From TrEMBL:
SMART domains: S4. Belongs to the pseudouridine synthase RluA family. This is RluA family pseudouridine synthase. The keyword Isomerase applies.
Length: 273
């Protein structure tokens, strides 16, 4: 993180544009990452007015994660393919999404994401090789016949071994089964199973029980003073394992994805991995 002291009142977007010698559009894109700190607090409003004496911290945005599709295929058969998704990439829906890249890699426009992970969440994600397979597997999700397990590194040392959280998300029933794997250095490593799959469910539930995920820009800590935390560029949440009964092969399939290097490195620094 680079610290810069403000010497005159100005909008955050204009300040970054001038200081970094970039367009206001690019400055706005940088602000949208929610990684800009003003006086140790995240700010993601481009028009936020800076005052003389404010300290703006600007992240270095290089992504040091080395990732290629061919090295991150976790499972493949004639119906589906599973990847270990990197952070900072959309699951589906447009150019440069993981779905789009996989279509190019496999030279097939029929490939379709069966489910999705948040942009900054890493881990196991499944793709169907054609529309019929997509519909068949989508049914498994709708019938809640897929076991989904995540790893998360959160703030605070949990005092429970296992906790079931039933807190509605967007007024819909949501259930998370949280198991504490390890604690220390003011953090906890959790394994979370989600029988339901509401948007941001794990992030919301962990925040509600006072263990927000490290690096979560929406539901996490607002005031960040620790230099170690300032260098965390995304939420420490990883889709670790998916299990299901394969509707075509007629057998149980379990797919596990190792945490990506940024998750692993942070976990090692705080001695939870």
């Amino acid at each position: 993180m680079k610290k810069v002291k403000v010497n005159k009142q100005t909008a955050l977007r204009d300040f970054l544009s001038e200081h970094l010698n970039i367009s206001k559009k690019k400055a706005k894109q940088l602000i949208d990452t929610k990684l800009i700190l003003v006086n140790n607090k995240r700010v993601w409003i481009a028009s936020h007015m800076l005052r003389e004496g404010d300290v703006v911290e600007i992240p270095t945005l290089e992504n040091n994660i080395q990732w290629e599709i061919k090295n991150n295929i976790l499972y493949e058969d004639e119906y589906i393919i599973a990847l270990n998704k990197p952070p900072f990439m959309e699951s589906e829906g447009g150019k440069n999404s993981l779905e789009d890249k996989l279509k190019g890699f496999k030279k097939s426009r029929k490939i379709q994401a069966i489910h999705r992970l948040d942009r900054d969440t890493s881990g196991v994600i499944l793709f169907a090789k054609n529309r019929a397979v997509f519909e068949k597997f989508k049914q498994l999700w709708q019938e809640k016949k897929v076991k989904k397990e995540y790893l998360a590194i959160s703030h605070g040392e949990a005092v429970f071994r296992k906790k079931v959280v039933n807190i509605p998300v967007d007024k819909k029933y949501a259930k998370s089964i949280i198991q504490t794997l390890k604690t220390g250095s003011g953090f906890s490593l959790f394994k979370i199973e989600i029988p339901t799959g509401r948007k941001h469910q794990i992030r919301i539930h962990l925040s509600k029980i006072r263990h927000p995920i490290v690096g979560d820009k929406t539901y996490g800590l607002k005031n960040i003073t620790d230099p170690l935390l300032k260098n965390v560029k995304r939420q420490m949440l990883h889709s670790y394992r998916i299990s299901f009964f394969h509707p075509y092969l007629k057998k149980k399939i379990t797919i596990t994805g190792k945490p990506l290097s940024d998750f692993e490195n942070f976990g090692k620094i705080i001695r939870l991995l």
